[in-house]
Amino acid sequence: MVVGAIHPLSRRRALAALAVCGLAVTLPGGIEASAQPAHGSAASNGSHPAASVPAFSPAPMSRLIRPFSEVSKLEAEVNIPNAEAERVTYTLRFKVHGGLESGTGFVVLKAPKGTDWTGSSIEVIDGKKAASAGRNPEGEQVTIFVPFEVLEGDTVEVKAYGVTNPEKAVTGELQVSTSTDTTPVGTKIEIGPAKAVTAVSSEENITNAEAERVTYTAKFKATGKLTFEHVEGLIRLKAPKGTDWTGSSIEVIDGKKAASAGRNPEGEQVTIFVPFEVLEGDTVEVKAYGVTNPEKAVTGELQVSTSTDTTPVGTKIEIGPAKAVTAVSSEENITNAEAERVTYTAKFKATGKLTFEHVEGLIRLKAPKGTDWTGSSIEVIDGKKAAGAGRNPEGEQVTIFVPFEVLEGDTVEVKAEGVTNGPTSLTGAKLIVSTSTDATGVAAEFSLREKTGGKPPSGEPEGGGSTETSSSSGQQGVAPFHEEAQAPVLGKRAAVKALAGTVLVKVPGSNGFVALSSTTSVPIGTVVDATKGHVQLCTATKAAGVEQCAEFYGGKFELIQKPGSASTHLVLTGGNFAGCPASRPGAAHQAKRKTTRKLWGNGHGSFTIDGRNSSATVRGTVWSVEDRCTETITRVAKGIVVVLDYRLKRSVVLHAGRTYVAKAH
């Protein structure tokens, strides 16, 4: 009989079984163990003396039963200085004496008490073979199931990512055993006291007041390394109670490295996933754009910690009382009557700065109940700066996204064209003005008169539309869209309608633009200029007779829809990139900030705005795409968009309040 190696836990049972059969077993060291029939058996009690029992001669054994074995040449290392409560990566190398079969073989790691393996991931490496491995964490021990066959004598490397150390410093062992090398072998590890970041500082981009939307910049020196591969290092910021991080976007900067970072907001704390490796001793800067302060003034701390520097370190911040704009006034372009379509001009002096980089400052106008802002177009003026602005209408209130930086003390003028008044006359009506930094609303009074009929004064066209200024050459291919005209055709024609302001179109083959005043059918390939107006665009879908419509404004685009596809692309056109290359010190930074072209969208359907470095596809939202010299910026005011970064070849889902910057290089 041939006996192979038997698992140590089953050795005694195997010997007992062999003894019952009367087999002789050769143990290690040449000791022979023979088994006789048990006392009282039929062969020894003499009850059948005449019975003839043939002699049994055991065959020599070809292999010995091995003694308890163990791994050898054990080495262990940690990717960072090992401290209490840190999130670390352990790497272990050892030589196996017993082979491990795929699916049934396993490795057991046991760390000091309090170690948490639940959030870890495991990789097993054997020469050129490497694969992720399943694991079963049980307290401070984890069982790892080998993902491939490991031969006797192989040197194995196990990487355990994202292991959380005990919460108290301890000196102990990291023990290793396997399903064939069952005797644990340990290597000493020291888990020291928790560390903390140093040189912490914080600043705000504006005077810090309650309910303001601000940008925080936190700087610190990392004591422990933050990894990026397999498991991301974490940075935690904790602000005073009531701070809201949900609408924020994060940028992490380390020397010449800078990238947007994912984050997980939880109340007044946000956990940030570092987008690259941060080395021990690096000075890190975290910019958190669009953080909303608590609604009450408070003096507190902005606390900073990381997954390797787990002790929070705070820097003092003071959140003062809410501020308000001053010198508010309002005027209308016509005698203001119920149900009229009018242009409102609101002026005010900004007490708090309104930013434009990464997250736009907000201006809010609230009119009497029943006012309709949906068909309006907005222009913001600050001294010599003037630009169309995106807006999000909600009932009688409209939120306006400032198109440039507004400094503290600036006098701002907002022109809202195509606002429809409420249906009821009102004396002592109020237009309430506030901003994201001057959160307390201030009112300017006006009156809504009864509607008297007749045409509006001042030469305003009936219905508030634009006066057509087309030329004969510019009208080619443009036909009024009515019952007899073509409806949208998939990949061939679309319908456009001017909602507010001036909207121009230039069809393929024409020499100039024409202004729209009603719904019009245009061919695919038409260029639409909605820089000073709002246009409704409707295209066909694959479902017969079903159209998809959305509103666009604040820019110029070429209309693209391929035959057989409902996906409609609005490719940004125009803009001046001639001044983009850096030709003198500081020019590159100025060029980066220069907006060359932009477009806002609002609606549902399969619509994509294509910029130079990325595209943004709508999921039912208010969003904008802006091309600059070295980057394309996508902002989401409401809903969700999917951004495709051309350079990185990846898609990012962007939620309301978030910004994505796609770099050219």
Question: Topology, pairings included?
Answer:
Blueprint: H1 11-20, E1 24-26, E2 32-34, E3 72-78, E4 87-95, E5 106-110, E6 121-126, E7 129-138, E8 141-145, E9 155-164, E10 170-178, E11 185-191, E12 198-204, E13 213-221, E14 234-238, E15 249-254, E16 257-266, E17 269-273, E18 283-292, E19 298-306, E20 313-319, E21 326-332, E22 341-349, E23 362-366, E24 377-382, E25 385-394, E26 397-401, E27 411-420, E28 426-435, E29 442-448, E30 479-480, E31 493-506, E32 514-515, E33 520-523, E34 527-540, E35 547-553, E36 556-561, E37 568-572, H2 587-593, E38 595-603, E39 607-610, E40 614-618, E41 621-628, E42 631-638, E43 640-645, E44 650-655, E45 659-663
Parallel strand pairs: 37-39
Antiparallel strand pairs: 1-2, 3-4, 4-9, 5-8, 5-10, 6-7, 6-9, 7-8, 10-11, 12-13, 13-18, 14-17, 14-19, 15-16, 15-18, 16-17, 19-20, 21-22, 22-27, 23-26, 23-28, 24-25, 24-27, 25-26, 28-29, 30-33, 31-32, 31-33, 31-34, 34-35, 34-36, 35-38, 36-37, 38-41, 39-40, 40-43, 41-42, 42-45, 43-44
